Amino acid sequence: MKRLKILCRGFIALLLAAASPVPAFAAANTDPDWPCIQRKVPQLSIAQVWTGPDLPENAAKWADDPAISHLATEMAARRNTVEDAQKLLATYIQSIPRHEINDKLMQLFQGIFEKLNWERQQIISGISRYAAKQRDMAADLRREAQKVDAMRAKPDADQAELTKHNDRLTWETRIFEERTQSLTYICEVPTILEQRLYKLANTISQSIIKE
Amino acid sequence: MRSHMSMLAVTAALQFSAQAAWANMVYVSNEKDNTVTLLDSATMEVVKTIDVGQRPRGITVSHDGKFLYVCASDDDTVEIIDTATHEIVGSLPSGPDPELFVLSPDGKTLYVANEDDNLVTAIDVEKKSVIAEIPVGVEPEGMGISPDGKTMVNTSETTNMAHFIDTSTHEITHNVLVDSRPRFAEFKPDGSEVWVSSEIGGTVSVIDNSTREVKHKITFEIQGLRSEAIQPVGVRISADGKKAYVALGPANRVAVVNAETYEVEKYVLVGQRVWQLAFTPDGKFIISTNGLSNDVTFIDTAADEPVKSVTVGALPWGVAVAPN
Q: What is the residue range of the signal peptide feature (chain A) (predicted)?
């Protein structure tokens, strides 16, 4: 939260100082369109989460098995709790012959990994778009603030016009600030997906039968 | 039969007391749920959870083991907890947003990094008063102190520097440029080197304490892992100065480094987003906080294998172990 306050304060200061908005985004990151405090990790790697045996080549063919494909979709979906996903897995394991379990589980993990990694990538691109839009908004607000300042400086300023512009500036600044605050929640979404993937990967690797 | 039972009871009691003799309390700050988890280092089980201030991060124990200091970052204070009663018994004037700190070897001064104010605050622990405020780089974070207490090193996240501060004058004597977003500074027990981790740079800079220059940069490569997932944060060096452990953030591993040759010898898979580390006083275990999997992992330092992961609070951040 403190970070966010700093970011918010940074933005407001930025608007007032009419400086380039880029440093506020880029201060701690190298990517100007990455507004989150966590370093941008665009894609996850299997080695980050998988503690089971090396995945066989046929794990990549998980989508060929309709049952695995369906189960991977259900287990990855955030509408199902992790506990529900674990129950689905337990039921599935009971439905297949023992000698097939390990191969099927590794295919299932590969499927869940690809699905959650893809979803996370989409969110990360969305965050970048959001950040780019914020920068554009900051530029607009600076222009508008300069316009209001210039109007105010004129002794014969049209007061009604000045009030109109000022109200607009206040309103848009508020929207901008609220969008900046939302960043905290948006930035947490990739993390939530990582946590889910890690828990599911652990459950699956623990279900692997050790010979 | 009765004598057999009593024999068993005696044996059990002996075992218990033997175990109790070397058990140390482990304290873990949980950033998200504003608690500190207490674990027994011998049984590796949670003993108690206590409520503390908002956003607890940096955590350390006084050298006599009587007090626990916790940075309550969002409350802008350092809380003092009595380790016997587990009650908050006072606070220290830390300055705004304290994140990490280090206690001087004589236990009298606490140096606190104030992330928001670009300051390091030196606090007299006994008098609970500020001795000095030292301006440093932007977003100070990592704090290390030399074994002789004469030099303190602070790292600044945004300026990418390790600032060497003379503790007698409270002046910066050297600024050493390191890689992007330095997070932690750790002196070797003989005071010859300072190791500084860089979260975004993905490296650990080894700074020679006599020349105050980077003499080596340790890099990490893990098969199957993208380089941006390797984010070094916490660093601890063994008491004999031979081995170092580096927490690698979302790589979910702790690197074991030969502290004499700087070669990475092993990567130990622990939990999700590994943050900070602490040794048990006998050096037999090192404990990692794993922020996203909400657990801590005990690593056996003889085999460098994980022994046990224990669920703690939400977003475990810092870890400290009571001295013997």
A: 1-26
Query: Residue with structure tokens 């995945």?
Result: A55
Helix axes A101-153, A2-17, angle to 10 degrees: 30
Please count the structural domains in chain B.
Answer: 1
Say whether A198 and B293 touch across the interface (CB within 8 A).
Answer: yes
Residues in A closer than 8 angstroms to B97, CB to CB, are: 2
* pLDDT, tens only, B221-276: 999 899 999 999 999 999 999 999 999 999 999 999 999 999 999 999 999 999 99
Q: Residue B31: closest CA among chain A residues belongs to which residue?
A: A1
Residues B166-203: tens digit of each pLDDT: 999 999 999 999 999 999 999 999 999 999 999 999 99
Query: B67 lies in which domain range?
Result: 25-321
Picking from A28, A30, A46, the nearest residue to B158 by CB comes out as A28
The answer to whether position B4 is within a domain reads no
The answer to whether the Cβ–Cβ distance between A46 and B224 falls below 8 Å is: yes
Q: What is the DSSP letter of A30?
A: S
* Confidence (pLDDT) at A17: 38
- Cβ atoms < 10 Å from Cβ of A102: 17
How far apart CA B124 and CA B156 sit, in angstroms, is 23
pLDDT of B9 over the 70 cut: no
